[in-house]
């Protein structure tokens, strides 16, 4: 199934056109689907959900993150139609990013832990404003990198900080983390969507993330693809009817 490339895919393509090559990590020789980044035998493309969202997302990525097949920002951009992605640079600011942040149709929220900023900037909720749509700015990087981006990006200083209060531990198993309370980017985005009233999209993203994780790990472990799991069943409700019948 062919889908229009999301902002992360376009960013990867742009980097490749510039002659930048991904780091050859373990497993790089495996043939992966160009569209979903999963090993071809466990392709995820037929499981991409189709939902409407009022919210938008903007992913701020490091140069290497855009190439990682385990990246979950890609999943968010698959689900949220109004998606944007930029490579962060300490010395150069993308003018398109600044234009997006100042666009009057959006109410940007920088998603980051509230304990690192002044209390007056912090909110735990998303205001429902009929004139402006929520735009969630997500720092799609390791925790160390995200803190650096946060500290060295003065154009974020005027934005409200959306500090999430998750009630459950991360389900992300594709990379190691020293802290189990750290959620991956897709889990964070699902919480944001739920707060903004995009409940269906939040549920679809959660299910899509679980299905992606299973496909990714089963392929890595050379296990047969199993589409009878509860996550696949939940995700089925968000697929196009023709896909649901043949999947």
Automatic annotation (TrEMBL):
SMART domains: DTW. It comes from the Bacteria. Its EC number is 2.5.1.25. It is an enzyme of class 2 (transferase). Keywords: S-adenosyl-L-methionine, Transferase, tRNA processing. GO terms for biological process: tRNA processing. GO terms for molecular function: tRNA-uridine aminocarboxypropyltransferase activity. The keyword Cell division does not apply. Residues 29-221 form the DTW domain. This is tRNA-uridine aminocarboxypropyltransferase.
């Amino acid at each position: 199934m062919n889908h229009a490339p999301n902002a992360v895919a376009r960013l990867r393509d742009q980097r490749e056109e510039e002659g930048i090559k991904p780091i050859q990590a373990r497993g790089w020789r495996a043939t992966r689907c160009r569209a979903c980044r999963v090993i071809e035998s466990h392709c995820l493309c037929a499981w991409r959900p189709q939902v409407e969202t009022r919210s938008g997302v903007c992913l701020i990525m490091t140069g290497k993150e855009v190439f990682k097949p385990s990246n979950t920002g890609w999943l968010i951009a698959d689900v949220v139609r109004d998606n944007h992605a930029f490579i962060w640079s300490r010395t150069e600011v993308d003018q398109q990013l600044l234009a997006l942040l100042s666009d009057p149709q959006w109410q940007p929220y920088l998603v980051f832990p509230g304990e690192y900023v002044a209390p007056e900037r912090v909110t735990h909720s998303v205001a429902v404003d009929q004139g402006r749509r929520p735009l969630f700015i997500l720092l799609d990087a390791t925790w160390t990198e995200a803190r650096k981006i946060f500290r060295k990006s003065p154009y974020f200083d005027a934005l409200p900080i959306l500090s999430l209060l998750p009630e459950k531990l991360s389900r992300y198993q594709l990379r190691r983390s020293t802290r189990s309370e750290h959620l991956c980017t897709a889990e964070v985005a699902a919480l944001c969507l739920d707060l903004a009233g995009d409940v269906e999209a939040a549920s679809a993203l959660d299910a899509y993330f679980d299905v992606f994780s299973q496909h990714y790990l089963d392929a890595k472990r050379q296990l047969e693809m199993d589409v009878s799991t509860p996550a696949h069943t939940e995700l089925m409700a968000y697929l196009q009817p023709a896909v649901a019948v043949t999947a």
